[in-house]
Amino acid sequence: DDISSIEKKLEEHFRSKSESFVMEFRMRAKSDAWVWIEARGKVVERDQEGNPLRMVGTHADITDRIQAAEELHRHRNMLAHILDSVPQSVFWKDLDSVYLGCNKVFAKAVGIDSAEKIVGKTDFDLPWPRQEAEAYRADDREVMEQNRPKRHIIEPLQQADGTRFMIDTTKVPLTDEKG
Q1: Where are the alpha helices (DSSP H) in the chain?
Q2: If pLDDT is split at 50, 70 and 90, which confidence band does 15 have?
Q3: Residue 22 burial by CB count (10 A; 0-12/13-18/19+): exposed, middle or buried?
Q4: Tell me, what DSSP letter sits at residue 86?
Q5: Considering only CA atoms, which of 13, 175, 10 is closest in space to residue 94?
Q6: What sign does the CA torsion over 110, 111, 112, 115 have?
Q7: Is residue 99 within 8 Å of 118, Cβ to Cβ?
Q8: pTM
Q9: Cα dist. 16→9, 20, 54, 87, 90 in Å?
Q10: pLDDT of residue 2
């Protein structure tokens, strides 16, 4: 199935007069299994009109890398589905209290039409009074400095539509392998 795209890509490469060539494609192995190949090549000799005469290159089996990427993609989709299925607001921030992500419930509450648009924002960018944003950030600092969860923070929350109510928040530090 990939032969025509390989031929097309090579022809484009030769016409472009580019020196380097890189392409990924599938190939059936002797075992009858399909493997992914990364081909890299370089034109090393051309005729007087610039047409390629010789090309050297390598082929590498990248099946493990492709399968790992597909598995990672499946896991990310499942995690996103789980987070967006939870009826509570979920968000995560970096060490400076800058948002790295959230679920759809949180995005809707703060008036953002997609969860991806929270990235890079702070509590001061959201529809909250400054005093409340400062309190949220103070809790963030405490959780990070003590490296301990802070549970049952009863606090006010103002949604994008102006609705206000009290919420029960839990904040937990997310640490890497170094703590």
Answers
A1: 3-16, 63-85, 104-109, 130-146
A2: confident
A3: exposed
A4: S
A5: 175
A6: positive
A7: yes
A8: 0.69
A9: 10, 10, 15, 53, 49
A10: 85
